[in-house]
Amino acid sequence: MSAVIDSHHDDHHHGPAKGISRWLYTTNHKDIGSMYLWFSLIMLFIGGAMAMVIRAELFEPGSQIVSPEFYNQMVTNHGLIMVFGVIMPAFVGFANWMIPMQIGAPDMALPRLNNLSFWILPVAFGILLSTFFMEGGAPNFGWTFYAPLSTEYAPPTVTFFIFSVHIMGASSIMGSINVITTILNMRAPGMTLMKMPLFVWSWFITAYLLIAVMPVLAGAVTMMLMDIHAGTSFFKAGGGGDPVLFQHIFWFFGHPEVYIMILPAFGIVSHIIETFSRKPIFGYSSMVYAIASIALLSFVVWAHHMFTVGMPIAGELFFMYSTMLIAIPTGVKVFNWLSTMFKGSLTFETPMLFAIAFVALFTIGGLSGIMLAIAPADFQYHDTYFVVAHFHYVLVPGALFSLLAGAYYWIPKWTGKMYDETLGKVHFWMSFLSVNLTFFPMHFVGLAGMPRRIPDYAMQFADWNMMVSVGAFLFGISQLLFLFIVLKCIYNGKEATNEVWEGAKNKGFEWTVDSPAPYHTFSSPPSLESLKTSS
Amino acid sequence: MEARKSVLKLTLITFGMFGFGFTLVPIYDIFCDITGLNGKVTGPTITSYDEELLTREVKITFVTSNNKRMPWSFKSSSPQMRVETGQDYLMDFTFTNTTDKPMIAQAVPSVSPGRGAKYFHKTECFCFEQQFLEAGESITIPVKFIIDPELPNDISSLALGYTLFDVTEEFANLQANK
């Protein structure tokens, strides 16, 4: 009898369970965070493989290796996977790992919900990817799935796509409820909202954005479902509906969505820059207000994605100016990062390299965004490679670089091992050069009129496109190197110290625990004073 | 418990926003009604204009199409016509039930460019009601319309499109429910 009780006791308090059940049933924020991160890394290679197919097809003009139908499926699924399967889950992975450790909480507030919100994700993407093997092929209407392309003219697999989006949305919403509840209720004593680390702040606001717009996306796909199967006419012009309505609903979700993919990046980069500048972040409260104003503005700018649908002039002006307003808080952030580095004792370890590249290249993406916001000019840029260049600059050297930076920054804390610094730098320089080779020329071909989402192009775009494809292949290979570096770090890395980085002293609770972080941290809450007095 | 309260509030926001997504549909309709956006046209409005108003010539194109699974033949007697603003005009549309059973149809109109929609006044139109035809029967019905002289000067041509829907089942259900 007592033996039974003892073993029960053991299961509960001494580290993780063994085998697969550890991962299936885990409610530990660190396990779930790791699963999110591995999941998004796997999806990065799947979505990346699709990008390679796209660039191979566009290597030369003319029809090269895949049919136009398959090309459309590649473009669509590349976008869907990178947005919903890579960037978003990766940030949720960071949130799971870091938020409890940064606010001094033992775990997330709702651990079982946490397990559920992770495990329905592989189901959602399993459904989405299974459509490739079905009659009619995978979704082929672009990641924005404009009706009626995605309703009347869609392949029959669109229903699977709709359910998969429903599940992804449910996962994000549950994750966000968890994040907000954790932050509101589980902060260490004395940690007021305005003392929270910036990554926590950025996720706090991101989670509210997710809760506000993911249900709208769910509504949009539900309307599609009803148009397809229940005979309604939400988006059918013939039945009194309106396809333009779809675009309004989609972008009402879609514009906050693009900030969902960048705000946590702002948080990560702020931590890295202050650590390797050996200074506290410049303008903490202005950083918080900037994130909040970007989030609020994101609700009133959506129609800048659809200037060409035939809006009244007043509408175009409103959305043009409101969009340009966003440049102000974003500029505040960029200048704060620069001021943090100014006169700092800088060192350039891999996380810092990625973070600085983030600031520089994200700004390029921001500037092309301002060009696109100019309503009269947008009529020329609309649906060209200029747009492709713009959003890839903010998503790849923007969001993805911040994820890589964050991974290098915190992996010693996660695994207890240091990654190979030389290989990390090689990875950075390969990624940095190839990402620019890939996306910078897209500005030129876009301005010259090359349309996006077309598997062929006019002869005059051939040279730039070949360069872009070479850059893309190099970028793909560079990320395989990242996988190698991560594996080498886990299995063969040098032991990391508890503080890991010299500049991380007093920079947050996560650096006060052992490396690797024990399975359970902060069973009793730490005090903010301990962070100060140890200096 | 504090956490329970947060979860409850956040869940309510979630459902609220799901509902909000759907209320965007009527909001958008009302907005388009007020601004005359997106070619949405309403019932009969103005019937005649003061002859004193300046008139000008506008080209009108007629587009007829069938919704999926609608087998009828549906055509206008001429693809386009030139009209003076402020004057009454007629255009004949012919419906033929090409199937071997009686059916009910409804045509839904749309005007392009959308900005011009509120200047396209139909004083008589089959689009206001359902059309019943026996198997193989054919009928020609005119649309009576006036182009508002207030039509902005930069619009020199308008297109009136009709999409024909099979509403036999819906209509039968409606009758059964009455």
How far is the N terminus from the C terminus of chain B? 52 Å
Domain count of chain B: the total is 2
Tell me about the biggest sheet of chain A?
2 strands, antiparallel
Helix content, binned percent of chain A = 55-70%
Broad structural category of chain A: mainly alpha
The whole-number mean of residue pLDDT values of chain B reads: 83
Helix/strand order of chain A, N-terminal first: HHHHHHHHHHHHHHHEHHEH
CATH architectural name of the largest domain in chain B = Sandwich
The largest contact between protein chains, plus residue counts on each side, is: A-B, 36 and 34 residues
> Whole-Å distance between the termini of chain A?
51 Å
The assembly state of the depicted protein chains is heterodimer
Order of helices and strands of chain B: HEEEEEEEEEH
Count of helical regions of chain B: 2
Provide mean pLDDT of chain A, rounded: 93
Strands of chain A, total number: 2
Radius of gyration of chain A: 23 Å
CATH architecture of chain A: Up-down Bundle
Shape of chain A: globular
What is the CATH domain class of the largest domain in chain B? Mainly Beta
Q: Could you give me the name of the CATH homologous superfamily of the largest domain in chain B?
A: Ctag/Cox11
Give an account of the 3D structure.
The complex is a heterodimer of chains A (535) and B (178). Chain A is mostly helical and 535 residues long. Chain A has a single domain (28-533), classed as Cytochrome c oxidase-like, subunit I domain (Cytochrome C Oxidase, Chain A, Up-down Bundle). Chain A has helices at residues 2-13, 20-25, 29-57, 68-103, 111-130, 158-185, 198-229, 243-260, 263-277, 284-297, 313-325, 327-341, 350-373, 375-381, 385-415, 421-447, 462-492, 528-533; strands at residues 417-418, 494-495. In chain A, α4 packs parallel to α15 (385-415), α5 (111-130) runs antiparallel to α6 (158-185) and α7 (198-229) runs antiparallel to α8 (243-260). Chain B is α+β, with helices and mostly antiparallel strands. Chains A and B meet through α6, α7 and α8 of A and α1 of B.
